[in-house]
Amino acid sequence: MHTNIVTRHASHPDDVKGYDTQKLRDHFLLENIFQDDQITGVYTTFDRLIVGGIAPVSKALELETVDQLKAEYFLERRELGIINVGAPTLVTVDGTDHKLNTKEALYVGKGVKEVIFNPSAEGKALLYFNSAPAHKAYPTKKVGLEDAEKVELGSLENSNHRIINKLIVNSVVESCQLQMGMTELKPGSVWNTMPAHTHDRRMEAYFYFDLADDATVCHYMGQPQETRHIWMTNHQAVISPAWSIHAGSGTSNYTFIWGMAGENLDYGDMDKVAPVDMK
């Protein structure tokens, strides 16, 4: 078996107030998300999202069911979103090949029985994925950057000039509850999702990449008046509960993938928090 998915349980915000640095990292940080010829990840009881990485190097990897699902196959009751952060590669979905270039996405709906991730002939394939429970089957769909709904926000003066690429959202792809996208910070900008917000009806996960080996991002989480931080490096992900803000500042510009699951597909459903009100 080439799949290793571990379970992390939801945490109450009052409990998290007492976490030290290591406990905070143990509960929310995914450090070694890409391992050669493995599918690795976390099944979190926050909205039952699975967050993980796939690195087919010397062989193709099939999406296997895992014990947490108690399902005949992985997508029996789930949907899947994939974004390629490595070299161009092929993902085979029930016998049909889909070529994913760097920073392109693929949505795979409930009921698909076979998903195969193939090694790249052009380098190392690195596929980041999110999976959420699904109640209806929607078609598989590839989404390139030219297909994304793009939003430009922020400014260089405020160190947060960024382009949001909405890849798997209901204006681009039909899905049950999964949403994914990618935000690219412009050179000279280091702040993401600032002003910060929470959304009680959805949890979220962030994956940071396009960082040099000596660069880092300080990811901020916690209740707006009880914030915490986690220092992160390239190719690491973090779980963000519905009660938590999710923002970051880096030692350089970077790119991150956001994924959400929960009550609705309303991208704008959020409760904004003014920076001066955070503590």
TrEMBL record:
Pathway: Glycan metabolism; pectin degradation; 2-dehydro-3-deoxy-D-gluconate from pectin: step 4/5. Zn(2+) binds at residues 197, 199, 204, 246. It catalyses: 5-dehydro-4-deoxy-D-glucuronate = 3-deoxy-D-glycero-2,5-hexodiulosonate. It is an enzyme of class 5 (isomerase). Keywords: Isomerase, Metal-binding, Zinc. Its cofactor is Zn(2+). The keyword Phosphoprotein does not apply. Binds 1 zinc ion per subunit. Its EC number is 5.3.1.17. One of its GO terms (molecular function) is 4-deoxy-L-threo-5-hexosulose-uronate ketol-isomerase activity. Signal peptide: none annotated. It holds the Pfam family KduI. Catalyzes the isomerization of 5-dehydro-4-deoxy-D-glucuronate to 3-deoxy-D-glycero-2,5-hexodiulosonate. Belongs to the KduI family. This is 4-deoxy-L-threo-5-hexosulose-uronate ketol-isomerase. It comes from Echinicola arenosa.
